[in-house]
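YM 10:42: Biogenesis of lysosome-related organelles complex 1 subunit 1 sequence, as discussed on the call
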Amino acid sequence: MASSASSSSPALSELVREHQGAQLEHRRHTEQLRKAAVRDIGDLCDVATTSLSTQLGSVLENQREIESLARDCAHLVQQHVRSTAKWTKLVDQFNGSLKELGDVQNWAQVIERDMLDVAATLEIVHASLNPSADTPADRVHASLSPSRSMSNLRR
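YM 10:58: structure's back
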């Protein structure tokens, strides 16, 4: 029995050493995997941080550009508003001038009708005072019949 115990002892101690060696190798391998995982996670974080920083920089640059364009657009809108106000004022003045011109034309037509009435009245008075006289005034008055206006004489 003693020989079986001593013969099993070297086998058992060999098994224990092998087991401890396997555990040690397993721990080393696990430690290498852990270090590789930590390194890979660190690299991933660096890549993600760099990518996010780049994208964030691009977003901020785009935001600045948009804000600049918005300011430029607001400035152009203000210029357009001022220009539109000037044009509106000019159009209003032009409309007023057209109305005044229409009033002057209407006034001229009224004066012309009144003058024709006065000329016709003078012709009647002259004809009644001088029934047989054929004067140059008679010829002028004959040409100034109510159907013809002064504007026709200017032609």
